[in-house]
Write a structure and sequence with these properties.
Largest sheet: 6 strands, mixed
Oligomer: single chain
Structural class: alpha/beta
Order of helices and strands: HHEEEEEEEEEEEHEEHEEHEEEHE
Radius of gyration: 34 Å
Distance between the termini: 64 Å
């Protein structure tokens, strides 16, 4: 719009001077030329230097609005009347891109803090950076850009909810959903094997009946009690809204396992992460990493993927309550209620 007004003014003044070369029109055209010259000099001859700094990385939940602050420092001796700071953001999970231009004005060797309100619509790891600062004069064609590089890291988590985890060897109440785990736990009285007596073995380990039959001392070895490891898998679906719900359930289950010291793992690429590494798990998933199906028995959290595996307990996201046919089917609305209390 400003460029169009500048063109119209230039054409009118030039045309008036050519059609009626009177002193008034010639004077107006000369004044217009002088103003343009001043604007050009102020835009291109003044040395300017800017630095932009940002705050530390931020973690928020989906749906929140968070103010991002960018501190701009102007090092030149001349004031800046009009400027635009360009901010770009990219979601590493969804590849969504946003662009924002924030106006500013600064005095000589002045600084200010700009605020950009970011709305966390989609989950993911955001890479937000300032790319350039455009200095404009009051005449639109005379503008200059300065590169200003600064990076702000922002992680948008799925909405998590409290999950009360009950370990498998405890009594399960009627209000708890028992996720079927076919992992065999070794109890303290399970035999590992029998062997001859060695110096230093405890007398309590001697199997007296078998020793009497074999006419030598036989020792019975036992396993220590081991807790079954819950292995988890989550589908990386291309539907962002659906994937947000799947990640919400996954991270909520992992957080519940972490709080109750229940051993839970998930494999991302070639690395197996423990529930205690929840922040690192979220970082990898929200940056685009995909989970791998573990060997043995596992819990699978899926939306579109069809899992026909006897080793998998499938928690499936459905569009409506009518589509929930299996015991572990859930919807985006019922996930918090259904998995608020689970036994693993």
């Amino acid at each position: 719009m400003k460029g169009l007004i500048w063109c119209i003014c230039t054409v009118i003044l030039l045309g008036s001077m050519l059609i009626q070369p009177t002193g008034i029109f010639i004077g107006l055209f000369l004044i217009w030329c002088v103003l343009n010259a001043v604007a050009w000099i102020s835009a291109y001859s003044i040395k300017r230097d800017f630095t932009v700094t940002t705050a530390a990385p931020i973690q928020v939940e989906k749906g929140m609005k968070v103010p991002l602050h960018f501190s701009v420092k102007h090092h030149a001796k001349w004031p800046l009347l009009q400027g635009l700071l360009e901010i770009r953001g990219r979601n590493e999970l969804s590849q969504e891109v946003i662009t924002k231009r924030v106006p500013l004005s600064l005095g000589a060797k002045d600084s200010m803090t700009l605020e950009f309100v970011f709305e966390a619509v989609n989950c993911g790891s955001w890479h937000i950076e300032t790319t350039q600062l455009t200095v404009s004069s009051w005449l639109p064609f005379f503008r200059r850009t300065f590169p200003v590089k600064s990076v702000q890291k922002l992680t948008v988590w799925p909405v998590r909810f409290p999950v009360a985890i009950q370990v498998a060897n405890q009594h399960t109440t009627d209000t708890m959903l028992a996720l079927q785990q076919r992992v065999t736990t070794q109890q303290t009285n399970e035999r590992l094997g029998l062997r001859p007596y060695r110096m230093g073995d405890s007398v309590k380990q001697i199997h007296w009946k078998l020793s009497a039959k074999q006419d030598e001392l036989i020792v019975e070895e036992q396993l220590e009690e081991q807790q079954a490891a819950v292995q988890l898998y989550v589908e990386k679906t291309t539907d962002l809204a659906q994937y947000d719900v799947l990640l919400s359930l996954l991270l909520s289950l992992l957080e519940g396992c972490r709080h109750t010291a229940t051993k839970a793992t998930i494999q991302l690429d070639t690395t197996v992460y423990q529930a205690s590494e929840l922040e690192e798990i979220a970082k990898q998933l929200l940056s685009g990493s995909a989970a791998q199906k573990p060997t043995g028995d596992y819990i699978a959290i899926v939306g579109q993927e069809n899992i026909d595996d006897s080793h998998a307990t499938v928690l499936r996201l459905r569009e409506s309550d009518d589509a929930c046919q299996q015991p572990y089917d859930f919807t985006a609305e019922t996930v918090k209620q259904k998995f608020a209390h689970v036994a693993l």
